[in-house]
Amino acid sequence: MKSLKQDAVHIVRSLRARGHQAYLVGGCVRDLLLGREPADYDVSTDATPAQVMKIFPRTYAVGAQFGVILVPVSQSDGDAGSEVVPESVVEVATFRSDVGYSDGRHPDEVRFSKDPREDVERRDFTINGLMLDPENDEVIDFVGGQKDIESGLVRTIGDPAKRFAEDKLRMLRAVRFAARFDYAIDQSTMVAIQSLSADIHQVSNERVRDELTTEPPQHCPRHS
Questions:
Q1: Could you tell me if 39 and 33 are in contact, meaning their C-beta atoms sit under 8 angstroms apart?
Q2: C-alpha angle 40-173-122 in degrees, rounded to nearest 5
Q3: For all residues of the chain together, what is the average pLDDT?
Q4: What per-residue confidence (pLDDT) applies to 17?
């Protein structure tokens, strides 16, 4: 049966065949480096949402304003009468920078970019900031994420106070990742969590529930 990873790699190749940059990104790269099977695969590209929708015949533009397009994939072993696995999706997100988080949840403005480094630097933690070129298995690491995986460390990308001010839920996510992987939390990251912990009450109960019960997409504006 065709795997979700193969579908994601096919999407990367399709984007590249049309002249775009494209990589696997985020939690799937982290999990692959840890020898774990990712629950989902995300693709990051310099193609705009309109260009992505033009390349792939079926898409869901549920997060197009944030540069996120869902590309559905149906998986089957190809044999007559075989069972078809329910449709899955690969999230394809345009490189971007985020401008302002006045509600402590969503970016006020999204600016699309051609620079993969700029896209990575607005993400939450270094272990989620890795890109992978599936053609040659080369890891693109702008933020020291590989070292932090090897050291077992949860560390924000850039200033932790800024990262947590952008999205208060990231404080809870840092603790969850530390517990999930048996990692330590970087000292400056922990200091910021302790200083800003009271702000977690600004997060809705529904978002807290989702954070504790599901693996969040790494580039979705609600979870990055």
A1: no
A2: 75
A3: 85
A4: 97
Question: Residue 147: CB partners within 8 Å, gap ≥ 6?
Answer: none
119 Rama class: left (phi>0) / alpha (psi -120 to 50) / beta? alpha
pTM above 0.90, yes or no: no
As given in the structure block, the two tokens for residue 34 are 């840890």
- Residues in Cβ contact with 28 at an 8 Å cutoff, skipping those fewer than 6 apart: 5, 8, 38, 40, 41, 42, 132
End-to-end CA distance of the chain: 31
Confidence (pLDDT) at 2: 63
**Cα–Cα distance between 132 and 25 in angstroms, integer?**
6
- Indicate whether 83 pLDDT > 60: no
Number of C-beta neighbours around residue 86 at 10 A:
7
Over residues 167-177, mean pLDDT: 91
